[in-house]
Design brief:
Blueprint (H helix, E strand, L loop, with lengths): L1 E10 L1 H4 L2 H14 L9 E5 L9 E8 L2 E8 L4 E8 L5 H11 L2 E10 L17 E9 L7 H14 L9 E7 L3 E10 L2 E8 L4 E8 L5 H11 L3 E10 L3 H4 L4 H7 L8
Antiparallel strand pairs: 1-5, 1-6, 2-3, 3-4, 4-5, 7-11, 7-12, 8-9, 9-10, 10-11
Helix pairs in contact: 2-3
Length: 266
């Protein structure tokens, strides 16, 4: 299993708001890596969030045995992208493709196997980081594995762990050449996304949750582990958007520019 992450800061606001560009990235880049999308890209623009600076686009596409997600924050001039796949791919090529479409001054890239312990060595810092990302691999998996039961699980889990769903779950079933049937589920939350992939022939599951809001780790994980019975062979908590508080942009400068005309009235 391979999981690629990239956090980009100080890019172009117009590109982060370009819905057509984000859809092209989701539909074209996996194919250029030799991976097969099994649906059109699903995009969910949001411009009326509780925090004005959080407006942007959340989007994902299912692959055969994996997914790609993109979360853009146009006012903050940053984005977060992930590609998870049971089929190996060239992470460096994906980094170059993303940099061509969504160029940024500052990048953090991680491209690792789920069993690479170094993947989780970065500690989270709620005062400065964007948010936590939890990755799990479960052997002897005995939890939800049909399309109906995975839908029910992904429909209820976000609310039970204090997250905010902004869509109903998507569930697909595909067969991969090397790993057999895979049932995949995804739901977008206001905090980012939750995904689950179950390899039926191997009784193995891969779960991840990415949140832009820090949370009480142990209570949340007790709920998640209870919903995903089996042997947890790998569990990593890693940070996304290191030093986010220093790198992000805000709306303060734009708001000041929009009020310059008032000085003429003074």
């Amino acid at each position: 299993m391979q999981h690629f992450m990239i956090d980009g800061f100080r890019g172009f606001r117009s590109r982060f708001d370009d819905i057509k560009l984000v859809q092209e990235v989701l539909e074209e880049f996996p194919a250029q890596l030799g991976l097969q999308p099994v649906m059109p890209g699903f995009l969910l623009p949001y411009y009326n969030g509780v925090v004005p600076e959080d407006c942007g686009v959340s989007a994902f596409v299912f692959l055969k045995g994996g997914h790609m997600t993109i979360h853009t924050f146009s006012f903050r001039e940053c984005y977060f992208a992930d590609l998870f796949s049971v089929t190996p791919f060239e992470g460096r090529k994906l980094e170059m493709l993303l940099q061509s479409a969504l160029p940024c001054e500052n990048l953090t890239v991680r491209n690792a196997e789920r069993k690479d312990r170094a993947f989780g060595e970065v500690r989270t810092d709620p005062e400065n980081d964007f948010g936590p990302h939890i990755l799990m691999e479960i052997a002897d998996y005995r939890g939800a594995r049909t399309m109906d039961t995975m839908f029910e699980l992904m429909d209820s889990l976000p609310r039970r762990i204090g997250m905010t769903p902004i869509m109903r779950p998507y569930v697909v079933r595909e067969t991969t050449p090397a790993r057999g049937p895979v049932v995949s589920a995804m739901t977008m939350i206001a905090e980012s996304h939750v995904s689950l992939h179950v390899l039926e022939a191997e009784n193995r599951a891969f779960f991840d949750i990415f949140s832009c809001s820090f949370f009480d780790y142990e209570p949340v994980m007790r709920t998640i582990r209870g919903d995903l019975p089996g042997t947890v062979v790998h569990e990593v908590l890693t940070a996304r958007g290191k030093e986010y508080k220093q790198l992000r942009r805000g709306r303060e400068e734009e708001q000041q520019r929009s009020k310059v005309w008032l000085r003429a009235l003074a």
